[in-house]
Amino acid sequence: MNKVLKAILPKGFKANGIFCGLKKSGKEDLALLYSEFPALGSARFTTNSIIAAPLVVSKMHLRSAKKFQAVVVNSGNANCFTGKLGIKDALSTTEFVAAQLGVPVKSVLVNSTGIIGKRLNIAKIKQGVPKLVSGLSASGIHRAVKAIMTTDTFAKEITLSLKIGGKLVNICGIAKGAGMIAPDMATMLCFIMTDAAINQKTLDRVLGGAVDKSFNCISVDGCMSTNDTVLILANGAAGNKLIISGDDLREFIKALETVCLELAKMVILDAEGATKFIQIDVVQAKNYLEAKKVALNIANSVLFKTAVFGENPNFGRVAAAVGATGLKINENQLKIKLGSLKGKQVKLQVGLSRGKSRCTVFTSDLSPEYIKINAEYN
Amino acid sequence: MNKVLKAILPKGFKANGIFCGLKKSGKEDLALLYSEFPALGSARFTTNSIIAAPLVVSKMHLRSAKKFQAVVVNSGNANCFTGKLGIKDALSTTEFVAAQLGVPVKSVLVNSTGIIGKRLNIAKIKQGVPKLVSGLSASGIHRAVKAIMTTDTFAKEITLSLKIGGKLVNICGIAKGAGMIAPDMATMLCFIMTDAAINQKTLDRVLGGAVDKSFNCISVDGCMSTNDTVLILANGAAGNKLIISGDDLREFIKALETVCLELAKMVILDAEGATKFIQIDVVQAKNYLEAKKVALNIANSVLFKTAVFGENPNFGRVAAAVGATGLKINENQLKIKLGSLKGKQVKLQVGLSRGKSRCTVFTSDLSPEYIKINAEYN
């Protein structure tokens, strides 16, 4: 398996990113990912019951169509909490793109990231789409990555290549920002493109598994976004024998998990105000879910995160966070190992003496800078 | 009903507070509340499964004895995560006090607040007890309030008087600090003394109800402490007819709820780093528990609290916090009214369009000062 921390589009994919007028900064704010061949699509969305308009439209398209050719994404506005007009705007966006590409409307998926509760400037998007489509190219992925960023300080991209039945298969993933990461900004987005040939059922299953072990194992502030999306398109252009089981499937799962985990870690590395990258390993749990619950509760403890920021090895706050899950555990069973807090990387291991399961979760510390950013400090 | 924001001991109670050597500051760190008459006792403790040693001992005494005469409390050390030695120390503390007072060991309850994970200096406590007991007086409650404080900036005290069956009944409550409120410090403690005559079953029930509507409706940082305690002693010295039902019970409940709610609000007013006192009213819920879940989820949203600190009216963050509870609600049903953010007092009302139940929760904003305090900043 070959891995590079750079986006290289798999066979049959093109991309582009332009400035259409949504961001005040004048930076790229409209991205398009395009597959020349109709591709299978699978996605995991936020479980927040207030969901953004583009997710409503994308879910509708994912239910009613079997193949997809494009994903259009704007930054600068999350198009969330915008009512029926918001849904109309999201749908219009897919219509503009579909018309320009000459593909069915339902084959176009849509996403947004940025401020919540303000209406999208749909005229600017309409105006931008012809340029967006005409500029599509294999190298356009670099502009697309920029166009989905809000306050991210670096682009999050990765490409993996692996051999499946003698054929070269590529998986390219791009992602943006951790949780609700800046003044009024929302959303963690991840788009993965692969030329692998795979069936729908398997694709759904392996994406779910990879997301659970990666994006569902990170937390910046415990705040669930209304736009979170992980979307994969698989267009089969690699020409491999359909991935169904055995070594092929195992290899593909391993590669997809790597893509998701690496991108998830980049999201944490770029968490706003963060000075530390914290790995929390909960071991000796009765089962995986118990380990994950404990790990996430520590990761979301404001006091633990603040202690790490202060390089203050506070075991009591870890113990309190474990106990707050309601897990029946006494303090003699609890083994807490906290590595040095001096560097950028911090490791915490918590042993529960209850079984053999484990889970690893990644988080960042909580700094005054986080507050300043999110309070719209001057 | 007469209310003063000052501690005035009910009939038959005495108190004292001294410096015994636990606090580096040299301020009062050992408190004693004493009832001349054996009193009924009832308590609500933290639901954290890691609980502090004095709570283990107090729970044991509450189970095995029927009447109580003293509560001894130290600040400067939480005696939590301290193993069997911690339990031995807590028990020794009750033994010293019992011997000096000439009362049964099981009639003495014990509590601690301060740093987690360090052994208590039991020698200092032993040395301090004779002075603590000999100085007991009706006016000593003011020293006792000081002795349970850690980084609280003001004493939290209240006294209510009411007539029950023609007799004057008094309820006096004192409390300390919000959640885990300072560097390595833990614990919200509340002690209530009343001279009311009431039976055990009724006392347990009314305390539970009052706590649910007050202390269980506040949050500073969503971090559950290992020492949280609300304890009431009722010694019957008022000579009223036993409170069992009817108007007497209703009046007593109302008074006890007022004591708990006022003290809970003071805890929020004194939350570390706080610049705002936020009242969150969730209305039109299907039931009380649903309203409370939504209100607490908003109160614990780091992003909402940060927005309030920044005086930034961010409705999207409120909507996201509501949706994150998993409540099946669409955005058209959700009515968010956020008052002015300019003053110290902020009011948020959230309507769910689902029913007629409501819940009010109190919280504070999240400021860089909170981080500084809890990171042990210099």
Describe the fold and architecture.
The structure is a homodimer of 378-residue chains. Chain A has 378 residues and is of the alpha/beta class. The first copy, chain A, folds into two domains: 2-269, L-amino peptidase D-ALA esterase/amidase, CATH 3.60.70; 277-374, Roll (Ubiquitin-like (UB roll)). Chain A has ten helices and 14 strands. In chain A, the strands form two sheets. In chain A, strands 1, 2, 3, 4, 5, 6, 7, 8 and 10 form a nine-stranded mixed β-sheet that branches. In chain A, strands 9-14-11-13-12 form a five-stranded mixed β-sheet. The first copy, chain A, is globular and about 65 Å long. Chains A and B meet through helix 8, helix 9 and helix 10 of A and helix 8, helix 9 and helix 10 of B.
Task: Provide the fold topology.
Two copies of one chain form a homodimer.
Chain A: E1 2-4, E2 13-18, E3 30-45, H1 53-64, E4 68-77, H2 83-101, E5 108-115, H3 122-134, H4 141-147, E6 156-164, E7 167-176, E8 189-194, H5 200-212, E9 218-219, E10 229-234, H6 246-269, E11 277-285, H7 288-299, H8 302-309, H9 315-323, E12 335-338, E13 345-351, E14 357-364, H10 368-374
Parallel strand pairs in A: 4-5, 8-10, 9-14, 11-13
Antiparallel strand pairs in A: 1-6, 2-3, 3-4, 3-10, 6-7, 7-8, 11-14, 12-13
Brief synopsis:
The structure is a homodimer of 378-residue chains. Chain A has 378 residues and is α/β, with parallel strands linked by helices. Helices cover 33% and strands 28% of the residues of chain A.
CATH evolutionary superfamily of the largest domain in chain A: L-amino peptidase D-ALA esterase/amidase
Determine the structural class of chain A based on helices, strands and strand pairing.
alpha/beta
As an assembly, this protein is: homodimer
The low-confidence parts of chain A are 181-185
Largest sheet of chain A: 9 strands, mixed
Shape of chain A: globular
**What is the strand content of chain A?**
25-35%
Give the N-terminus to C-terminus distance of chain A in angstroms. Answer: 47 Å
